[in-house]
Structure formats: C-alpha cells, structure tokens
Design brief:
Elements: E1 2-7, E2 12-17, E3 25-28, E4 31-34, H1 37-40, E5 43-44, H2 47-55, E6 59-63, H3 65-73, E7 82-85, E8 88-94
Parallel strand pairs: 2-6
Antiparallel strand pairs: 1-2, 1-5, 3-4, 6-8, 7-8
C-alpha cells in the first residue's frame, strides 16, 4: 500500500492505494478512476502508521482491496461508503 499526503493552504487530502494499481485506469458505465502516479504514488509505510494517518485526517481517497480492508477493519470507513469500478473497491472519506 502506498500513502501520500497532499497539503494546500486550507486543506489536506490523503491518498491510499494498493501499489499494484498505480498507473491503471478503470471505467465502468459512467464511473471512471485513474490511479495516477502524481496523486496516488506515495510512501510504503507500516500498517500502524497508515492507520494513524487515516484516523487523523479529514479527507481521504482509498483505492484497492488491501487498502479498503485496512480502512474497514480499523473503523475508518463504513462498508456502505464503498463503490466498485471493475471490481476495484473505492471509498472517499470526508470528515467535517
């Protein structure tokens, strides 16, 4: 799994994805996602560190079976927040 933190002046977005998805594009009907290196290729970190970052962030894009499972198992996202494109699970988490 690869984690990347995108920071701007007013916000922070965390991207987490399974490393084997980098550079791939998935489309199904009107749904489309590109797992670009620019947005998703981050650091490979221990699961404990990934969990800590996800639990403390306000916005996250999570893509891939392993990444989604980690987020679900640690109560970061709920099952009903997951969509699938070509069997690839995706969740966008926003906390207010």
């Amino acid at each position: 799994m690869l984690l990347k933190v995108h920071k701007s002046e007013n916000s922070e977005i965390v991207s987490l994805c399974d490393d084997d998805l980098i550079g791939k594009i998935f489309e199904e009907g009107k749904l489309h996602i590109e797992i670009s290196e620019r947005f998703y290729k981050g650091e490979e970190l221990p699961k404990e560190k990934i969990i800590l970052v996800l639990k403390n962030c306000n916005n996250a894009n999570i893509v891939g079976k392993e990444s989604i499972k980690l987020a679900l198992d640690n109560n970061i996202i709920e099952k009903n927040s997951i969509i699938k494109i070509r069997k690839i699970p995706i969740s966008y988490m926003i906390r207010t």
